[in-house]
Specification:
It is built from nine helices and seven strands. It has about 250 residues and is α/β, with parallel strands linked by helices. Helix 5 links the parallel strand 3 (about 100-105) and strand 4 (about 125).
Length: about 250
Amino acid sequence: MILMIRTIIWFIYFFVHLLAISPGLLKAKRLKKQGKDEELDEFVHITARNWARRLVKLAGGNIIVEGKGNIPENEPVLIVSNHQGNFDIPILLGWLDMKIGFISKIEVKKIPLISTWMEYLGCIFIDRENPRNAVKMIITGAESIKNGQNLVIFPEGTRSKGGPVAEFKKGSFKLAQKSNAAILPVTIDGSYNMMEANGKIITPATVKVTIHEPVRIHQNNPTIDGQELADITRGVIVKNQDVQSKKQ
């Protein structure tokens, strides 16, 4: 009963707080019109980070982050993470301490307010059913990274919900190859326990986020096969998840 009440309160808070910060979109629009890009960037990311942290804390999430020292300074990166559950996005938004956008499926653009905030965050929306659009958006994403935007991808394509990490799709790794940006592997361990493991009932849980050393093999070997690059990155993430599982 307590968990059900928490879940109801969480969803109410989700929508109420989203409405409460919606006037911020007017400020963001004004800053963009005035050409105050740095101020706009700071405002949008702080707003998103605070919103994400409140959502996770209200759900009872205890987030432990290791490896922040592996985040490269003064260079944009492609952040590659496994995808366990719905809380992965707010966890990364709230605890990476980086200005990030996401590669998202185009269907998300239909969600009012959220899609607008995502656009200001620098998210890229890809239509997986339209190959030409997907290629175009990969090029757009690569240019965005070159211009200083950190982007996050979940190359499994779906949530594992606590199961084994699925094979990584190579297509999204073209973002790293075309931008020549370092890949920053991230392992999320335990986020599915906050929702997916409990029939979508929100449950307090501890989640460990591990930031690994950047993968740069493609920077030294531009001709590396995309699938090989995907497999190397997946290997880093899976190895860490296996280690954490043995400790539990």
